[in-house]
Amino acid sequence: MKITDLLQYDTIILELSSESKDSVIDELVAKLEGAGRLHDPISYKAAILDREKQSTTGIGEGIAIPHAKTAAVKEPSICFGRSSKGIDYESLDGQPSHLFFMIAASEGANNDHLETLSRLSSLLMDAEFRGKLLSASSAREILELIDKKEHESESQNESEEFASSRMLLAVTACPTGIAHTYMAADALKAKAKELGVNIKVETNGSTGIKNKLTNEEIRAADAIIVAADKQVEMDRFAGKPVIIVPVAQGIRKPQELIQRAMNQEAPIYKAGKNTAGSNEDAGSASKLGGFYKHLMNGVSNMLPFVVGGGILIALSFFFGIHSSDPKDPSYNPIAGALGYIGGGDHGAFFFLVPILAGFIASSIADRPGFAPGIVGGYLAAQAHAGFLGGLIAGFLAGYVVLGLKKLFDKLPQQLEGIKPVLLYPVFGILITGLIMLYVINDPVTAINTGLTSWLQGLSGANAILLGIILGGMMAVDMGGPINKAAFTFGIAAIQAGSLGPHAAVMAGGMVPPLGIALATTFFKQKFTETERKSGFTNYFMGMSFITEGAIPFAAADPLRVIISSVIGSAIAGALSMVFHITLPAPHGGIFVIGLVNHPLLYAAAILAGSIVTALILGVWKKQKI
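^ thats the sequence. predicted structure below, dont judge the formating
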């Protein structure tokens, strides 16, 4: 597949009208939407902004490559925009950006699409090629230049043999794996060739690991450069000088990195000590940020078990609240099967605590932490220590394995191979298991029982206050840490058998996009045409319990949007508790509303909160047209 199969006449803007980073993103997204390349422009923009939060895609040299891979993309595409005077895109070199390539990759994009997108990133490293794009007088000329450059690139023999005199190795990786991964790889290879240095670069992109480093190559290398913004396999580099930096430095500072590697100005890597993406040059991440990262790794991997199991259990209730119990007179075989598959004693719901613990532990200690985490979580589940027990088991197992890595680091190099297959699993499972059995489980089970009793006994003002807090938290950062904390609490409540708190959580999470959608409909003069179009999409996002649909509006007008959303969400959460709503399904929005005990009252609570948000926002915002 050629680049021009993805970049076409209807996705080219010869001269951008934008003058800021936010507006150029809006203009490029609008162009993709107008060309029919997007299912949902508001979700796509949210994914673009989410990528920008991780690090700017203004890579310098006048180039910016905003990109996202999301289900909001209908057809993999590239949108090109050019600004003669330049736009401040917060680029790494501090200079204005002139050439903008917005990459839209669909969630199910095949390898051909993704490799084509990465090839574009590589071509842009050529300064002469960039100059020609800047001076092109028509869209046709731009497409011809890209075709010609791509043909020249393909005609070159890029299959360079890695001779026995190889010196350096590198790994590049970015969170989406579309652009920065390959640009960093090409920058390192080009600079190494210029300096007369042999280098092999492994890329960890959307199409998987390419040019993977072998054990023999690692043993023979003088030093290793890891330019990555996401976790990559690191323990294989134990005993070697390793430079760990963000992927952007691979693009911007290839010569500096290569020279440091050649001079071996890097610490000797010790297995389990560092992780890729924890940039040694940018200071260590905060402990709170690390805790959140590990927790979210557990929650995100646990969520399919929670959603799948929870909805199956909820469906069994259609036949009667106890119809899945063979001992109950209302027993129904279909309900029994649904309850058995999804249930908490043996089905999908049972696995949520072990999976939570296993992935928290693996986030902390990489793969060696997974088995001790799973076993610790299983022991917590067996003891009915619940969600809290799983959290403790995950962090315990992760840090136990980190301790073992430091302890076993003193062993002879000849024993390196038996650590991951023997020492870490045996001692990690043993120590974690003993601590869970004899120290953690009993007190945590007592706490979990007390929490369950408290949740089930909530009534009156206490229940309403909890609904206000949980509903409001869902709108504070709309998918960020506070939102996820409330969502996690709701799941813990479901797991503990209390179905009210999560109903307040989902109601609060549905309000921001629904309130914004109503505001753009009934206060049209307060919004631009693009915002009104995006607002309509928020009806569907809100009904689907996708709070993130409100993010672009919050980014453009944070004070008004966040405050109005928090108030509306808090009201929805409070009303949900006032009406004694119970929700057995952890996700699904309007599609699972039939599973609640009072669906009409629940819909009324969500609608009331949404109307309040719409009214506050509509009255507060300034007129646009």
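The chain has a mean pLDDT of 83.
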